[in-house]
Amino acid sequence: MLIGELAERAGTSPRTLRYYEEHGLIHPSRDANGYRQYDDGELRVVHEIRALLADGFGVDDIKPFVACLRAGNSAGHVCPDSAAVLRRRLAEVDGYLDQLTAVRHRLQTQLEEIKCQMTP
């Protein structure tokens, strides 16, 4: 399939696909006139990339997941390198949650102080 068809089927744009290609995430072949050609496996890779980006992963973090898919695995997260990225990302998310919990506690305390001052 050509880049436009892949973009449409993946719910993205040709520009985005060229960006993925620049970062080595997708690998089109070229036909005689130089047009990019993609097989159905690339569609699966693009779906994985988009899902990981939506979850806050960076382009470099995504590479092990793509490599895992290209190795013939049923999912991009089942390989050891992908699992290492998942563990690191989970630790980051846990850190964010701790920070947000502390902020929530401070805000709640301040609101309670206001209530106490306003109550006669």
UniProtKB/TrEMBL annotation:
<dbReference type="GO" id="GO:0003700">
    <property type="term" value="F:DNA-binding transcription factor activity"/>
</dbReference>
<protein>
    <submittedName>
        <fullName>DNA-binding transcriptional regulator, MerR family</fullName>
    </submittedName>
</protein>
<dbReference type="Pfam" id="PF13411">
    <property type="entry name" value="MerR_1"/>
</dbReference>
<keyword id="KW-0805">Transcription regulation</keyword>
<dbReference type="InterPro" id="IPR000551">
    <property type="entry name" value="MerR-type_HTH_dom"/>
</dbReference>
<feature type="domain" description="HTH merR-type">
    <location>
        <begin position="1"/>
        <end position="68"/>
    </location>
</feature>
<dbReference type="GO" id="GO:0003677">
    <property type="term" value="F:DNA binding"/>
</dbReference>
<dbReference type="InterPro" id="IPR047057">
    <property type="entry name" value="MerR_fam"/>
</dbReference>
<dbReference type="InterPro" id="IPR009061">
    <property type="entry name" value="DNA-bd_dom_put_sf"/>
</dbReference>
<keyword id="KW-0238">DNA-binding</keyword>
<keyword id="KW-0804">Transcription</keyword>
